[in-house]
Each structure stands twice: as C-alpha cells, then as structure tokens.
Specification:
elongated, Trp Operon Repressor, Chain A, alpha/beta, 9 strands
Length: 232
Amino acid sequence: MRFDIITLFPDFFTSPLSSGLLGRALTKEIATVNLVNPRDFTTDKHHRVDDEPYGGGVGMLLKPEPIFAAVESLPVLPNREVILLTPQGQTMNQRMFQELGTYDQLVLICGHYEGVDDRVLNLVTREVSLGDFVLTCGEIPALTLLNGIIRLRPGTVGKEESLKLESFEAGLLDFPQYTRPAEFRGLKVPDVLLSGNHQAIAQWRKQQQQERTRVRRPDLWQSWEQQQCEKG
C-alpha cells in the first residue's frame, strides 16, 4: 500500500515513520510512504505557497498551483483516494481506517494557515477530519490516519487476533485488562480473571464492554443497540 503525503513540513514525519510498529512496518515494506513538498513545485523566485484570500479576511490560504502540481506529479495506482485533511471533513473512526486500508494508494494533502484555495477540492475525492476542533497543521491528522491504517495491515501487529478484540472493532469500547501483580496497593484483579474459566472470562469481558460503552459513550451504545435490533 502506498501513501503520498503532500506536506510543507516533511521533517514532521521523520521520527514517527522510523519508530515503533510504524517504523518496523515500513522497513518490512508492508506500506510505503512518499513525502512531497509543494514548495518544490512553485515557479516564483520566493517559492510562495500561500497568499491573501480574495474578499479580505484574516490569515493566508495555500495556493492551488503548487498543490495541483504536487499531486499531478504522482503515479496513479488503480485504486486511489485523494484526501484533504480539514476540519470540514468526515470524522475519522475505526470503520474508516478499515475501509481506507483496502486502497492501493492514498494521497494525503495537509492543510495549513487558514486552509486551502477551494479549487483544490477538484483534486480531492474525500475530506477527512480528526475531530471537531482546529489544529495548527494537517500533518497531525495525516499521521493519525497513516498510523490507524498501517497498524491494521497484515504483518504490522504481532498477534493479529488482538486487533479483533480491541476498542471499536465490535462497535464497543474495550474491556478492562490487568497484569501482575494480582494485588497492588489494595487494588485487586477481579477474581474471574484468575479463575482459569475461559467461558466465564469471555462473558465477563463482554459485559464489561457493554457497561463501559453505555456509561462512557452513550452515542456508541445507542448505535450498537440499534445494530443489535437490526440483526434481530
């Protein structure tokens, strides 16, 4: 799977792309990441990538020409999505990561300043947001998207079975987990987890997932209940 990241700050990705599971996945060529700086596609002597908005207003906008040129310089794989990271986009979630993980190529355009010239949307097939808030740059949500997708790729996580049991995979939050010691400062691990009864443990975990989701994320709980009703 190929990722092309259109970014004014390629160095932002240096450490994350060389660390931990993500770094190992790229070393194993489970995915490839290509960083493209739109400043390299400017034609004026000052290499300007931004300008004042027509009609006035505060801040600067990214100009369309360098972004178009950067995207058009890339190869086009058969199954490709061009994504603009913007607060106006669809909010990321686990289902999105799963879907986007089926593509051959993702082109991620990182916004800056007050955003991009709206004509850039003619390149874009999807707008994606990290959440209902504003950040200083699009590199943060781009890295989040990259991480969320690559960790689902076969070979990235040692025990792939664990991916099926974590938060959001079943539409619920994760269950509580514990490790040694069995008691710490008077806080004890639930007896059922020490029982060796795998059926009872599975049932406890299921109940805990449902209760956590109901209390902490009523929105997810409502959606999960609706899905259960539809399944009959």
